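# step 3/5: fold
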Amino acid sequence: MEEMVGRWWHQALTRLTQGENAAFAVRLEDMQKPIGVLFRAAGGSTSLRLAPVSAQRTGGPRPWLQRLAGAGEHAALTVLEPEVLGLPPSLAVFADAALNRDLYLWLALLSASFEHSDHWLADNLAATKCALQRFPGFCDRHQRLLREHLAQRPDPVLLRGRAALAERAVRCVLAGQKAYPVDIGAADICAADVAPVWLWVQGQGATVALGGERGAGQDEVQVKPHSAKDKQRRRTQKALDGSERNPLVLPFRGEALMSWGELVRVNRSTDDEDDGNAVAAANDMEKLSLAPGGETLAARVKFDLDLPSASADDLPLGPGQRFPEWDYKRAMLVPDHCCVQELMARSGAAFAPSPALRRTARELRRRLEVLRDAPRLQYGQDSGEGIDMDAWVRMQADDLGSGQARSDTPAVYTRRTRGERSLATLLLADLSLSTDAYANDQARVVDVIRDAMYVFGEGLSAVGDPFAMWGFSSVRRQNVRLQQLKTFDEPWGEASRSRVGAIKPGYYTRMGAAIRHASAKLQQRPERRRLLLLLTDGKPNDLDIYEGRYGLEDTRHAIHEARAAGLTPFCVTIDESAHDYLPMLFGRQGYAVVHRPQDLVRRLTQAWSILAR
């Protein structure tokens, strides 16, 4: 009975303290795409990811109802970190949904100009001036946001002591003045001293972690998310515990019982069961205390996969090739850092696809044969039945302010004509050890990839365009293995089908070296259009430092190199968490996520059909 009344009381007070603007709330997931576009257009780092941030402690006066409910002490404020821009999961600051959307856009502009130092007020003042100078068209919206926010802020006359001085300083900076009250300076004020300043960004303070991205070295602590759906970022702090062993006798002191918010040295990785309350407790804590497990990297057991013997391994094709690798910490390409060895499977039994797979291949061949003979859309024509929007925008931009006479027949039209195709495609498949996992109850991931490559090869052979197929895996940087399945000069026949049917899970995923190898092959082709299709089931990784951001940055740099060489890279993945990192690698329109393994063939050929137009 007491628990039921307590839950009812808590729910009732929570509803009463939610505020009057809950009906005008705007969610981050609805604004994530325009925020990302505006942040990067304003000069923000392209490697930063957007993520919802957890609440942190703030100051300022609270109404008596919030004090009674224990609410209003925390707020989700914007935090800019080296790798992540943390934004509030939702905004209901104003009683106008349009204003809340404008606030998200303003935070994106401000974060792109923000430079962190030890002066919170001065940092936001400088970032505000810089953002308004870069985007003067946003000044009216910013002024409206500023007026509404100042009307919500507490009156300094009703405050006392340090709180009153801090509030006056914040109001001065919001108004664009660099004048602070007496006895207080910019370095003496932090976000916890005043009511939430929704128009500002919090600089890098304590570490913000969402687990798994950094290597867990001696000076770093790795945090793993509770589940794939738990995307919220949390503030963490390093904690050191000098006690190496527990005493034999623990005297009981009733007045010193530990609460759940204190550091307890528990190795969560050895727990067998989860009580289900870990996420709720983490959300209630202002900071998570993270302590190393007392083991060095050298003391940990690591399972390494040995390469097979020469008699059991695939046949090497010539000496290995050297490729560079991007080190984002030093911002340089390390020359000849990776060794790529081309291999080919030994002769084996012929591949015997199932009747259903043969039927799918025949249907795809018929569709692509129609595509081969269909008229193709030509862009940049002086006449036609449609408008080439890219050419039109370029023409308008070139003519703006030039004062020159415009041609009567500008090349801004599209026209469908029959012409000779000039297209080369290279399909690069991820054959890492993770493909040995089961995609569904019937087939493994590698089986789904094998079927997709077989159907893809059958379809492209009907079109007549040159194509090649390679698989890749790696064991550190000196053993990047490229499996030759079909070359450009080889016809699609029994030999290539057998090699596709013989693919098996390999080792790890050093994606940057594999992309550079495939790009070098494609650059040798004389065709006008060259497509690089990547088929994978996860993010880059390897045994050495090729984890987390290092692997992502190297892969991203390799993709940029391919685009600079005139290639068109595109990724098709079955990784459910691909939306977290693939936009950074391939862009918003450069990848496709397959949610069901049986849809992989359709999405792969659909992506090729769109890119081949």
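# step 4/5: annotate
The chain has a mean pLDDT of 78.
# step 5/5: archive (pending)
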